Amino acid sequence: MLCGGRVKGMKVTGDGGHVYVTRDNFFVTLSPYFIPIYAILVFAVFALIQYFLDLQNSQMIWGLFFWALGLSYCFHVFLTAHILRTRQPDIVSQGYLFSAVVIYLGNMMVLFVGLILISVGLEIGQVVREMYVEAIKAYLVIGDMAQNTAISINSALKSDSG
Q1: What is the pLDDT of residues 36-49, one digit of tens each?
Q2: Are residues 41 and 91 in the same domain?
Q3: C-beta atoms surrounding 44 within 10 Å
Q4: What tens digit of pLDDT does each residue of 85-135 get?
Q5: What range defines the domain where residue 80 resides?
């Protein structure tokens, strides 16, 4: 529905199954692997608790939320890993590398957006800027480490040959 298509039918057997849709694209094909339904449910329940009970400063509620989120995400990741152990035609049709990237980024995006939506006073622009700054810092540190490693290897090779 989200992508303008409709479900035409579904086939389920003991060996597997599939869904017939009127419009297919990579989002529709790969969404079961990167949309963690139970984690989204945890986000929704926590958002409702925050809205109606105003327990934003309760460490117990936040602890319970992160426990439930971790549990639901672990379930999603392990179920996905279990399913991917067998040959999945939808993964093959989209390509292994492309599917892996979309699944990883999709999972990270759900966490990213969900955490921003439930965090009071946190804006997406602020988080994106902070992530950009920290990513640049990380690349600079990694670049310095690589440069120092190359210098060390070069000097070790020069001392061995001389």
Answers
A1: 999 999 999 998 88
A2: yes
A3: 13
A4: 877 777 777 778 888 888 888 888 888 888 888 887 777 788 788 888 998
A5: 32-122
Sequence-separated (6 or more) residues with CB below 8 Å from residue 19 = 7, 9, 10, 11
Alpha-carbon span 48 to 41, nearest angstrom: 11
Closest CA to 68 of 97, 36, 98: 36
Taking the C-alpha atoms of residue 68 and residue 142, their distance in angstroms, rounded to an integer, is: 34
- Whether 116 and 36 share a structural domain: yes
Residues contacting 122, CB < 8 A, separation 6+ = 116
Q: Can you read off the two tokens belonging to residue 76?
A: 């999603």
CA 94 distance to own-chain centroid: 18
- Region of residue 69 (phi > 0: left; psi between -120 and 50: alpha; otherwise: beta): alpha
What are residue 13's phi and psi, to 5 degrees? -130, 175
Closest CA to 100 of 29, 25, 38, 30: 30
Pair 96, 83 in one domain: yes
Element housing 105 (H / E)? helix 96-118
Does the predicted model carry a pTM greater than 0.70?
no
